[in-house]
């Protein structure tokens, strides 16, 4: 046999082995962690910083062991989950380590001093190796620089909010520097010079990773899914819930459905900061989620997912988001329409004055159409249909198109758009659609008490978000949340 034939046979054999080892499904875990925070806002010694991080990693290691014992192949832990979030550029420095490029082929658990002092990476690596599970964590990276780099900070180093992934042997297989920093983060972390698009392959699918605020922007989030075709997104986050559209479980489950991917979201748990809401989401709905504003306890979620959701029979069909609403009569000015604010954005609203009906409300080029029937029209609750088509400019700038059916905080129409967490009105049916100019639309249904509605709604090919059966719980909001990335301001 000639050498080239030997290589071909070896390659075929290797491919056959990989296919045999590949899994159609896998068990995933996420852990919502009540982070132990620093006791001081002042700079501490490296020893004191490590002591705090070890206290948090003690908790995380318990979750890793439990997840592995239940068969999980991968576990995601939260953003800021090892040291917290109240820092300045100087006070966070003792918590940072030099995190190398994964191309160096490094297992910190077996070679901890190869890149200097890296006790956090060593411990995370050993958690993965000792439990034969992929471990995803969020830590801080530091990179020295000097005057030859015109963008080098005055203290001679870059500091990055960083996600790391260790495989089941403890090897560092992914490192991601957060690109879209949220507000005060920029006081102690640097923006990467370019957005990073990080993927890695496993026997149970292709994975991508990004962090928290990144989800609202095209890079890296949309690029990972639309261009690089990952199967599952890993999402460490420190998400502060904002009703009516941006509670963690509500938006993250909608993003998974809208993008057609698995989504493993691990949130920090701090009720004072309105931080809770983790989940294991698939394109056809939540497989498991956790939302708890009553206690300060952490929580482990475990669920089974398809390794390649796009190939699954349960994968939702492609949607033409403006198809149905474009066939509805154009809007005419209506004296009953009124304006209201939702998270600083000026919506146009119209009230649902009857127990059932068909309504249309418009703003700019967005026409939102609703067909509905209430199980009972209550006198003590008011619902509206709302539309927003414009640039959101608070805590970042990004272009939105939103159609929403939502409950007002009270019967006073001036409260429409203010956070309302509970409701008593049930709907026998609803159908919501809009003339969206974007293909990126995320369908949300939120029940009273911030509860999701997996299996109780679907999106049709023509862009209608409809109830599959009579909703089982009172409705807080039914929303089509559109992101028009092409209209975002240039950075």
From TrEMBL:
Q: Which GO terms describe its molecular function?
A: pantetheine hydrolase activity
Give a yes or no for keyword Zinc in this entry: no
Question: Where in the sequence is the signal peptide annotated?
Answer: 1-22
Q: Which UniProt keywords apply?
A: Glycoprotein, Hydrolase, Signal
Determine if DNA-binding is one of this entry's keywords. Answer: no
- Identify the CDD domains for this entry: biotinidase_like (cd07567)
The protein's matches in InterPro entries, at most eight in alphabetical order, are given as:
Biotinidase-like_euk, Biotinidase/VNN, C-N_Hydrolase, C-N_Hydrolase_sf, Vanin_C
Gene Ontology terms: biological process? pantothenate metabolic process
- List residues of the CN hydrolase domain: 31-307
- Which residues are responsible for catalysis? 79 (proton acceptor), 178 (proton donor), 212 (nucleophile)
One of its Pfam families is Vanin_C
Q: Which family does it belong to?
A: Belongs to the carbon-nitrogen hydrolase superfamily. BTD/VNN family.
* Protein's recorded name: Vanin 2
Native source species: Gallus gallus
Question: What gene is it encoded by?
Answer: VNN2
């Amino acid at each position: 046999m000639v050498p080239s034939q030997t290589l071909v046979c070896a390659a075929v054999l290797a491919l056959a082995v990989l296919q045999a080892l590949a899994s159609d499904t896998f068990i995933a875990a996420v852990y919502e962690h009540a982070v132990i925070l620093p006791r001081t806002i002042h700079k501490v010694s490296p020893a004191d910083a490590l002591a705090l991080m070890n206290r948090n990693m003690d908790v995380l290691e318990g979750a890793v062991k439990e997840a592995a014992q239940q068969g999980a192949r991968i576990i995601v832990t939260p953003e800021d989950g090892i040291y917290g979030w109240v820092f300045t550029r100087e006070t966070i420095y003792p918590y940072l380590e030099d995190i190398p490029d994964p191309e160096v082929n490094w297992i910190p658990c077996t070679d901890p001093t190869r890149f200097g002092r890296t006790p956090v990476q060593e411990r995370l690596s050993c958690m993965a190796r000792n439990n034969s599970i992929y471990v995803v964590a969020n830590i801080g990276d530091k990179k020295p620089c000097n005057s030859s780099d015109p963008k080098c900070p005055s203290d001679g180093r870059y500091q990055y909010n960083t996600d790391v992934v260790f495989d089941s042997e403890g090897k560092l297989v992914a490192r991601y520097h957060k690109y879209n920093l949220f507000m005060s983060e920029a006081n102690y972390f640097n923006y990467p010079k370019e957005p990073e698009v990080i993927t890695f392959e496993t026997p149970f699918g292709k994975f991508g990773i990004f962090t928290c605020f990144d989800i609202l922007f095209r890079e890296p989030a949309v690029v990972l899914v639309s261009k690089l075709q990952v199967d599952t997104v890993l999402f460490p986050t420190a998400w502060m819930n904002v009703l009516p559209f941006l509670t963690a479980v509500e938006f993250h489950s909608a993003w998974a459905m809208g993008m057609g991917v698995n989504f493993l979201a691990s949130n920090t748990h701090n009720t004072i900061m309105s931080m809770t809401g983790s989940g294991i989401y698939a394109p056809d709905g939540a497989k498991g989620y956790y939302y708890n504003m009553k206690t300060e306890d952490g929580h482990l979620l475990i669920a089974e997912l398809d390794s390649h959701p796009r190939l699954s029979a349960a994968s939702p069909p492609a949607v033409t988001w403006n198809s149905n609403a474009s066939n509805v009569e154009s809007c005419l000015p209506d004296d009953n329409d009124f304006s209201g604010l939702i998270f600083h954005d000026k919506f146009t609203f119209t009230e649902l004055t009857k127990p059932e009906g068909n309504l249309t409300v418009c703003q700019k080029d967005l026409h939102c159409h609703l067909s509905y029937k209430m199980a009972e029209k209550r006198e003590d609750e008011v619902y509206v249909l709302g539309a927003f088509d414009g640039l959101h400019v608070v805590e970042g700038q990004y272009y939105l198109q939103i159609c929403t059916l939502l409950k007002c905080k009270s019967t006073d129409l001036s409260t429409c758009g203010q956070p309302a967490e509970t409701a008593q009105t049930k709907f026998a049916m609803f159908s919501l659609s809009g003339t969206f100019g974007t293909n990126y639309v995320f369908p949300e249904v939120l029940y009273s008490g911030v509860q999701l509605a997996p299996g109780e709604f679907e999106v049709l090919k023509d862009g209608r978000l409809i109830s599959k059966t009579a909703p089982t719980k009172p409705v807080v909001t039914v929303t089509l949340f559109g992101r028009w990335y092409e209209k975002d301001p240039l950075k």
